[in-house]
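Action item from last meeting closed. Structure (229 res):
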């Protein structure tokens, strides 16, 4: 018997990549065509963006708990959320959750520590790059980080919300992120943490002058291990 994975979806592309990773890479643990039982629940992104844009993370957390309750009713044993930004809400309500969580920032920090990285270039939404989700998780592993300058953070945020979450993965955005990563390398970063769950669809190892930490797939792989435990 394996554990039933509950996915709290927020943005469609990130949730889809996480789900596909669970199913495709599950075969390595569960045999040909094998993967754990998975249930995905998604409240519309628009419903999340209203409290997020207002800075009301408590209200965003209530949406997370709504999905968590639906997933518990569906039989899930534990939860993951393939949305880095939403973890600012999850951190506020995690203790009230009806099911345990795997935390995306904890998985990225653990992978960075295991690979010996000491200074990460943190890439994600403006809310994520300027917010509290990653700093304590990285600090616990003795890992430093930097974010791009404010102008670049704003452009990355626009790319995410105007393009990536809408399924647009275009060369100008890829070229810009390559330049951002190059500057991070020149500033002394030794890895790029792709901490918007859509960025790994746009940027892979071949596109980056730094090793990458793919938050979406790292979370999915942690869920596979937990499901098999």
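Sequence:
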């Amino acid at each position: 018997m394996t554990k039933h994975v509950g996915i709290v979806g927020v943005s469609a592309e990130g949730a889809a990549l996480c789900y596909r990773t669970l199913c495709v890479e599950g075969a390595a643990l569960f045999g040909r065509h094998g993967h754990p039982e998975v249930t995905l629940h998604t409240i519309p992104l628009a419903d999340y963006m209203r409290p997020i844009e207002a800075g009301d993370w408590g209200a965003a957390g209530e949406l997370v708990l709504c999905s968590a309750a639906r997933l518990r009713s569906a039989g899930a044993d534990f939860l993951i959320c393939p949305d880095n930004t939403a973890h600012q809400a999850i951190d506020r309500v995690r203790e009230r959750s009806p099911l345990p969580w795997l935390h995306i920032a904890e998985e990225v920090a653990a992978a960075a520590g295991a690979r010996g990285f000491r200074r990460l270039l943190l890439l994600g939404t403006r809310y994520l790059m300027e917010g509290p989700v990653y700093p304590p998780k990285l600090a616990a592993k003795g890992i430093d980080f930097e974010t791009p300058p404010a102008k670049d953070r704003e452009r990355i945020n626009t790319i995410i919300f105007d393009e990536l979450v809408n399924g647009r993965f275009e060369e100008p955005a890829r070229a810009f992120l390559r330049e951002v990563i190059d500057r991070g390398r020149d500033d002394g970063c030794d890895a790029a943490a792709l901490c918007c769950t859509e960025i790994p669809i746009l940027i892979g190892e071949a596109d980056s002058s730094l090793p990458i930490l793919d938050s979406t797939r790292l979370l999915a792989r942690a869920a596979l291990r937990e499901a098999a435990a």
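Note appended to the action item: The first strand starts at residue 5 and ends at 9.
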